Amino acid sequence: MIVRGSLLREPQKILVRATNWIGDAVISLPALEALRARFPEAEIVVVAKPWVSSVYDRHPALDRQILYDPQGVHRGSGGFSALIRQLRKERFDAAILFQNAFHAAWMAWRANIPNRIGYARDGRAFLLTESIETPAPAAYGHQAYYYLHLLFRAGIIPRPEPPGPLEGIRLTVQPEERAWAVRHLESLGLGGPRFLVAVVPGASYGPAKRWSPERFAELADRLIETLHADVLLFGSAAERPLAEEIAQEMEHTPTLIVGETTLRQSMALFERCRLVVTNDSGPMHVAAAMALPVIGIFGSTNLYATGPFGPNARMVRHPVECSPCGLRVCPIDFRCMEGVTVSTVYRVALELVKQLGVTHDHPARGRPSPSD
Questions:
Q1: C or N terminus of the chain, fewer CB within 10 Å?
Q2: What is the domain range of residue 312?
Q3: Does 113 share its domain with 195?
Q4: What's the CA gap between 187 and 136, in Å, rounded?
């Protein structure tokens, strides 16, 4: 397998179309880093939507970003045409499409990019110069290798083998963001030494990935009572009612930060926390990539395909015959999530806290272990 055209002549300028989900953006970072390692002198530019772009801020594998905002400045056909004109002026040598959509290939074709590399999905093969057959999941395993295999099957990098570069997935907070987090916590009355716990009860994909509000509330109360913790509830503005429901169910009072922070600000606050508890969601992958102690609660999704990679990540699930189904909404009795008890998650939380209290300076590295 080889890449035809100018890409063989060491491209000067590469466009990477990012995915539209935060979690996918995080687990595609090894592929972006592999692309940088293969072409260290090229200018690599990521095209991303605003809510994903923060994942790439100051990442060493790229030079800069171009925001694509279909809800704002690029709303409507006129806005998309303006983006295309901008991309044409950039004169990219190649486009690597991590996003699977037809629209990504249409964008690269309209922008007159001579080498357009992506998976042959969504009826877009005729728009690609390198149309890569989509591999079966058994061929790559974890979703992070899906993006790496795109580069491999296009002849850009050698075959990726686990654990490979996935051990290097890391997101970091900048000093000014860290200083902001300290000031913000002080403004909330949470300054000084505290045992902060972040709880992220939402999941943008759909309710099939969400543990119940009542169980999040009970877990938060138990952590407050046992660890003398202060619980912070995170989420998007649309998840504010969910957070308020959890707060109402609790005996203790959490701090709601839902809808009040950017992704980068949430990362800075996560860094101050001793534990992060989430569903299978973008924030789970962000926290894991920051090497934070994180517990991911899994139901309808495949933890071996989309689980977090991080030295201090743990996954909790209740095995049932119909999971993973990958559905947004459970059509039956939600048995996968109903089977995940508060006691199970609480036990894993205490074990993780105890472990890191003993081995904090030397965290175990490698694939997170599932707890059934």
A1: N
A2: 177-371
A3: no
A4: 50
Chain position carrying tokens 């045992």: 195
Query: Which of 138-147, 165-174, 249-258, 305-314 shows the highest mean pLDDT?
Result: 249-258
Give pLDDT, residue 275: 97
109 and 236, same domain (yes or no): no
Same domain, 163 and 182: no
- Band (pLDDT 50/70/90 cuts) for residue 371 is low
Q: Which pair of tokens denotes residue 146? A: 């899906």
Whether residues 50 and 190 share a domain: the answer is: no
Euclidean distance between CA atoms 24 and 26, whole angstroms: 5
* CB 23, CB 140: distance < 8 Å: no
191 shares a domain with 303: yes
Query: Count of domains in the chain?
Result: 2
pLDDT tens-digit profile of 154-185?
Answer: 999 999 887 666 666 889 999 999 999 999 99
Side-chain half-sphere of 25: how many Cα atoms within 13 Å? Answer: 25
Residues 316, 350: Cα–Cα separation, whole Å: 13
CB proximity list for 27: less than 8 A, separation 6 or greater = 142, 143, 144, 147, 169, 285, 306, 309
Same-domain pairing of 20 and 101 = yes
Q: Residue 15 has what pLDDT?
A: 98
pLDDT at res. 207: 82
User: CATH no. for residue 162?
Assistant: 3.40.50.2000
CB atoms within 10 A of CB 369: 10
Domain final position from 137, 168, 199: 168
**Alpha-carbon gap, residue 157 to 148, rounded angstroms:** 8
Alpha carbon distance, N-terminus to C-terminus of the chain: 41
- Name 73's Cβ contacts closer than 8 Å, sequence gap at least 6: 79, 82
CA-to-CA distance for 109 and 107, rounded, in angstroms? 5
